[in-house]
Design a protein that fits this description.
- The protein is mainly alpha-helical.
- The protein has 11 helices and no strands.
- The longest helix has 27 residues.
- The protein is globular, with a radius of gyration of 23 Å.
- It starts with 13 loop residues before the first helix and ends in an 18-residue tail after the last helix.
Length: about 270
């Protein structure tokens, strides 16, 4: 396998792609900071953290940090559905491998066609993203699997997944068909750059930033559970008027909170 980015040297200097990657990194940083400022995520997190620290019992933060890293981050422990977890892990680790390999190839081997093992890892990471991403998109999304919506229906919330799949798909196609002529080469490369720019430049409008927030939220949740401050949360009971009014259907307002296991007998695929 050859380094796909080495083929750009005939027209573009190595510094062009390197500059582009630096701009994408800056775009991600700016998007995350704008998202934090707009949603107040950091303010909310630190407020909860101070409350938990001041009112809860002492706990071992080091142990909780390790548990958060291993279970919630590395193993995506928040997913109860095993298929959803596998798809998420494939996409997550594939994306990391694909991005790291891209950076190494562009900065470490800008003019070398042979760049083992990074070219192979670039392909493996990309194929992992496609396997996990398309599996999720066509079969595991809630609105598709449970609500019977078309898998081709697009919402703003889909910007991250769609741009990720488009970027990786077009990148692999560009690398695969590089020998078919300059027209195909530059068309696929242009589409690849556009999709990648949307992916990294659209952080503020997509769910990209959630990968930075979720570890912090998972850590805070584990700390509040360990020190007992989560016990101050309201109980999920029909005796609470606020809980009763959460449901627009009159039938559910008087229904028990625990519906029993009968509701799980049939997967919700019949809508």
């Amino acid at each position: 396998m050859q380094n796909p980015f080495a083929a750009l040297n005939a027209v573009l200097p190595p510094g062009a792609m390197q500059t582009y990657i630096v701009l994408m990194v800056l775009a991600v940083i700016a998007g995350v900071l704008f998202d934090i400022a707009h949603k107040g995520s950091a303010k909310y997190f630190f407020a909860n953290w101070r409350k938990s620290r001041d009112t809860g019992k002492p706990v071992g933060l080091g142990t909780i940090a390790v548990q958060t890293a291993v279970v919630d981050v590395l193993a995506s422990g928040e997913f109860c559905n095993p298929r959803r977890r596998v798809a998420h892990l494939l996409t997550m680790y594939g994306f990391i491998l694909h991005v790291v390999s891209t950076v190494v190839l562009v900065f470490g081997y800008p003019t070398s066609a042979a760049a083992p093992p990074w070219t192979l890892l670039w392909w493996v990471g990309g194929l992992m993203v496609l396997a996990g991403g398309y599996w999720f998109w066509f079969f595991l999304r809630v609105d598709v699997a449970a609500e019977g919506q078309s898998p081709f229906r697009l919402e703003r919330a889909d910007l991250f997944v769609v741009s990720l799949l488009a970027s990786v798909t077009l990148g692999l196609l560009w690398a695969l068909f590089q020998g078919l002529g300059r027209g195909v080469f530059w068309t696929l490369f242009g589409l690849y750059i556009i999709a990648t720019t949307v992916l990294f430049g659209g952080v503020y409008w997509s769910k990209f930033a959630h990968m930075f927030f979720k570890p912090a939220a998972a850590f805070e949740k584990r700390v509040s559970k360990a020190n007992g401050t989560n016990n101050n949360l309201p109980l999920l009971t029909r005796d609470d008027p606020a809980q009763r009014e959460r449901h627009s259907m009159e039938l559910l307002k008087d229904a028990p909170m625990d519906m029993g296991l009968g509701i799980k007998r049939e997967a919700p695929r019949h809508y």
